């Protein structure tokens, strides 16, 4: 598989707008008759989001989406409960598209859903236009919505602005069978990719990233099979590359590249990619590193391209040693080069871990897909991690990490629900809880220091030497706040709970005692400050 000079011409440009906009569709002379849609499978209101997951799923199957739902059920199996409590899954695929150069993103769904998704995307700094094709019950059940989407695609397909247009069906259009697969593959040289990302079929927003990444990889793979394609923006690497799958802190691919250098290898693109041409280079990798193990559909595309996949990641001492061994073996690297890479980096990682120890009991939960890797790093830093919960599913690519953790007494819970994560905090009474927003909230109510996984843990390097000590500072700083939590708990007591919740039907008898306790605490603090001022 060769990556050579471009065959697609056109100026590099990108549209950047700070707010979502509605695509005004215009009539074209190139509109085919709308496809037949099973109107009986819909309700008069177009099966609104309130209909419930079971009813929406049944309607989608009746409307011709059973193959897609069956594939999702296989790729993203649910756990012992219905599904994790995560944000709308379409947020994941939307973010992937919004991060790509020369890519237009269009949503088809209920207006409330589109508003929420665009608001959240811009809250996270998307700064890109989000297209929206509106609908009502009539346009939905008659097939006019598909016609409107098609017209919007033709209007947007400007090759001077875009390489790709991504159209996403949300819950209601998916349930009603809007057939995005009938859109043309290409308009004016612009690729057209339609995906369904219903909340009742894709369990988490992390896995929705895989839905779009896999759809683009499939399209790119078929382009490669047909002939020459675009080279990467920086040119083709003069060394065999390792494709990295999973969103990472920006410094991590650089650090991984440094560890690969003694092996005669280089770090390839990170999937999901930031532009279309990187997909070709990703497919051209000598080996695929499953840094985040839940990209099931993407891995299938890499396997179809004849690529080997290696699980886990170069995290901590043990993880880095095993990962370098696996990568070197798959790429047929000589034994002396593998040993040289280990001898160069493992002592530095061990020293970095020893220099910043963590002495605490910590529970971890999240929905990013890197929860097991974070747990490994914390344990090698000296922490005790009795529980790791991840909203993502168990796959063969995380077995190495799961086995390593379980051998050290860690309970690993895939498809963890909020209730499971909360129960773990109650059971293990950690010194620090790392988790999602409700976990952090609950832990702080219990006077336990807590850190939000996504913003405070994922936003740091995890791999190699840079990752070895990266978590210690923020973790130890949070642990040092225990005295502040104890002081606040003592001062405020049960404010916000029971009779002190602020909503009273009757005046509670305990209120007088509470006010007296509060008055004495205020007086004691005033005396303490006065004494300190006198000193």
UniProtKB/TrEMBL annotation:
Domain Nitrogenase/oxidoreductase component: from-to ranges: 88-478
Gene, per the UniProt record: bchY
An example Gene Ontology molecular-function term: oxidoreductase activity, acting on iron-sulfur proteins as donors, NAD or NADP as acceptor
Pathway field: Porphyrin-containing compound metabolism; bacteriochlorophyll biosynthesis
Pfam families in the record: Oxidored_nitro
InterPro entries in the record: BchY (IPR010245), LIPOR_BchN/ChlN (IPR050293), Nase/OxRdtase_comp1 (IPR000510), Protochlorophyllide_Rdtase (IPR016209)
GO biological process: bacteriochlorophyll biosynthetic process; photosynthesis
Protein's name in the database: Chlorophyllide a reductase subunit Y
Keyword terms, alphabetized: Bacteriochlorophyll biosynthesis, Chlorophyll biosynthesis, Oxidoreductase, Photosynthesis
């Amino acid at each position: 598989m060769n990556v050579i000079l471009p065959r697609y011409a056109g100026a590099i440009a990108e549209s950047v707008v700070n707010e979502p906009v509605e695509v005004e569709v215009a009539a074209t002379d190139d509109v085919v008759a709308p496809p037949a849609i099973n109107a009986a499978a819909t309700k008069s209101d177009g099966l609104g989001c309130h209909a419930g997951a079971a009813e929406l799923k049944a309607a989608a199957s009746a409307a011709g989406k059973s193959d897609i739902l069956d594939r999702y059920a296989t790729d993203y199996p649910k756990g012992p409960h219905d599904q994790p409590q995560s944000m709308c899954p379409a947020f994941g695929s939307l973010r992937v598209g919004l991060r790509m150069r020369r890519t237009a993103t269009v949503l088809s769904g209920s207006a409330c859903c589109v508003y929420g998704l665009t608001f959240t995307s811009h809250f996270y700094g998307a700064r890109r236009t989000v297209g929206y094709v509106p609908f009502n019950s009539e346009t939905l059940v008659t097939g006019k919505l598909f016609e409107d989407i098609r017209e919007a695609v033709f209007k947007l397909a400007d090759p001077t602005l875009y390489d790709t247009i991504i159209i996403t069906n949300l819950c209601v259009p998916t349930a009603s069978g809007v057939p995005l697969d009938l859109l043309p593959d290409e308009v004016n040289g612009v690729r057209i990719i339609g995906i369904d990302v219903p909340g009742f079929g894709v369990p988490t927003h992390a896995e929705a990233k895989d839905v779009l990444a896999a759809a683009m990889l499939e399209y790119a793979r078929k382009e490669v099979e047909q002939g020459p394609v675009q080279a990467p923006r920086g040119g083709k690497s003069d060394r065999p590359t390792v494709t990295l799958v999973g969103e990472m802190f920006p410094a991590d691919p650089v650090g991984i590249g440094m560890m690969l250098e003694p092996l005669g290898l280089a770090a390839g693109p990170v999937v999901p990619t930031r532009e279309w041409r990187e997909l070709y280079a990703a497919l051209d990798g000598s080996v695929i590193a499953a840094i985040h193990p839940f990209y099931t559909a993407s891995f299938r595309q890499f396997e179809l391209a004849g690529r080997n996949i290696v699980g886990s990641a170069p995290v901590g001492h043990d993880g880095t040693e095993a990962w370098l061994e696996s990568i070197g073996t798959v790429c047929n690297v000589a034994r002396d080069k593998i040993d040289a890479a280990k001898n160069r980096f493992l002592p530095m990682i061990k020293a970095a871990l020893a220099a910043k120890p963590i002495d605490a009991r910590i529970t971890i939960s999240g929905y990013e897909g890197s929860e097991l890797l974070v747990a490994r790093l914390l344990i090698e830093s000296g922490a005790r991690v009795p529980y790791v919960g991840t909203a993502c599913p168990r796959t063969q690519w995380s077995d190495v990490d799961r086995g390593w953790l379980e051998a050290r007494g860690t309970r690993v819970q895939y498809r963890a629900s909020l209730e499971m994560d909360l129960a773990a905090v109650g059971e293990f009474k950690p010194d620090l809880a790392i988790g999602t927003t409700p976990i952090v909230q609950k832990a702080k109510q219990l006077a336990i220091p807590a850190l939000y996984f996504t913003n405070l843990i994922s936003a740091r390097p995890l791999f190699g030497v840079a990752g070895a000590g990266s978590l210690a500072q923020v973790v130890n700083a949070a642990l040092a706040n225990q005295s502040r939590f104890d002081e606040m708990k003592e001062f405020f007591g049960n404010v916000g709970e029971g009779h002190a919740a602020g909503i009273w039907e009757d005046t509670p008898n305990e209120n007088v005692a509470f006010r007296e306790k509060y008055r004495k605490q205020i007086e004691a603090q005033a005396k303490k400050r006065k004494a300190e001022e006198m000193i």
